[in-house]
């Protein structure tokens, strides 16, 4: 057999045969899906999209580049605390965190993220140091806001983002530990804009070139073991935030569009 004309990072090899490109696929690690099957799946998801757009729901814009930058500077606990606070973000330029009509101080945040006073203080210190949160004085205490460069309920300004739906997110995030929530936060930029699949290349427009992200890659990206990555994602699937499908011993992961969303009408994406 001739040398392949192209290889992908996931191990696929493409050969030119009679003027056409053919793919050599290892069925132990890949699943072959016809374009008809992919189109049927896409139509199903488009119907779900219409259902989502038909409901008025508040959402937070989560900007991809700043999230990727934070991944290398925050622990899973710190990222988990941050995403657990996003349902409390109030609309407006200030980015205030508000619960029951009051700006959130350390005590309110500790309750929201499920941490004791000392742990909460350490997490808030790190999040403010890294620019994810902003501390403001209100009388004798500090209250907190989210940096609009990372998360906002305002304008996107041309940046690539994912929408996090606040009501559903709050309900589901309360069931997760901060580490489990931290894994989810780190994965936000990696869900495909149209097919909801966890992917190495989430902005790829060619169906045949989408590369699903596997557990080993998740663990490597987060600096944790494969077993830990699978355990955390297992918690996300049990709570209905993610879905795992298996074929030929290979797992593929999807996100629930009730939790987050990227595509819009006309197959535009954010």
Describe it:
- This protein is α+β, with helices and mostly antiparallel strands.
- The chain has two domains: 1-34, no CATH class; 60-263, no CATH class.
- 36% of the residues lie in helices and 20% in strands.
- The chain has nine helices and 13 strands.
- The chain has helices at residues 35-53, 64-71, 76-85, 106-113, 117-129, 166-173, 178-187, 215-222, 226-238; strands at residues 6-7, 13-17, 20-24, 59-63, 98-99, 102-103, 133-138, 141-146, 151-152, 161-165, 242-247, 250-255, 260-261.
- It has a four-stranded antiparallel beta sheet.
- A hairpin with a 2-residue loop joins strand 7 and strand 8.
- Helix 7 (178-187) crosses helix 9 (226-238).
- The longest helix is centred in the N-terminal third of the chain and has 19 residues, at 35-53.
- The radius of gyration is 20 Å and the shape is elongated.
- The protein starts with 5 loop residues before the first strand and ends in a 9-residue tail after the last strand.
- Residues 50-56 and 264-270 have low confidence and may be disordered.
List keywords for this structure.
270 residues, alpha+beta, four-stranded antiparallel β-sheet, 9 helices, elongated, disordered C terminus
Total helix count? 9
Largest sheet: 4 strands, antiparallel
Q: Mean pLDDT, nearest integer? A: 84
Question: What are the secondary-structure elements, in order, as H or E?
Answer: EEEHEHHEEHHEEEEHHHHEEE
The helix content is: 25-40%
The radius of gyration over CA amounts to 20 Å
SS class = alpha+beta
Distance between the termini: 42 Å
Overall 3D shape? elongated
The number of distinct β-strands equals: 13
Tell me the strand order in the biggest sheet: 9-4-10-13
Please indicate the count of domains.
2
Contiguous runs where pLDDT drops below 50 for at least 5 residues:
50-56, 264-270
Beta-strand residue percentage: 15-25%
């Amino acid at each position: 057999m001739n040398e392949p004309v192209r290889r992908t990072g996931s191990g696929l090899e493409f050969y030119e045969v009679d003027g056409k490109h053919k793919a050599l696929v290892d069925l132990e690690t890949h699943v072959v899906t016809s374009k008809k099957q992919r189109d049927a799946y896409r139509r199903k998801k488009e119907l779900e999209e219409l259902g989502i757009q038909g409901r008025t729901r508040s959402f937070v814009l989560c900007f991809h580049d700043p999230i990727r930058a934070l991944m290398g500077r925050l622990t899973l606990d710190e990222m988990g605390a941050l995403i657990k606070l996003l349902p409390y973000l109030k609309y407006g330029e200030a980015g205030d965190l508000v619960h029951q009509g009051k700006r959130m101080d350390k005590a309110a945040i500790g309750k929201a993220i499920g941490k004791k006073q000392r742990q909460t203080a350490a997490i808030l210190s790190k999040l403010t140091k890294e620019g994810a949160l902003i501390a403001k004085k209100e009388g004798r205490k500090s209250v907190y806001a989210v940096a609009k460069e990372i998360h906002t309920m305002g304008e996107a300004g041309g940046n690539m983002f994912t929408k996090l739906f606040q009501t559903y997110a709050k309900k589901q995030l309360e069931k997760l530990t901060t580490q489990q929530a931290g894994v989810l936060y780190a994965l936000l930029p990696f869900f495909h804009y149209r097919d909801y699949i966890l992917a190495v290349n989430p902005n790829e427009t060619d169906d045949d070139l989408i590369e699903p992200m596997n557990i080993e890659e998740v663990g490597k990206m987060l600096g944790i073991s494969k077993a830990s990555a699978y355990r955390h994602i297992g918690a996300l699937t049990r709570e209905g935030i993610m879905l795992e499908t298996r074929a030929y011993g290979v797992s593929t992961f999807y996100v629930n569009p009730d939790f987050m969303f990227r595509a819009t009408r006309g197959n535009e994406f954010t």
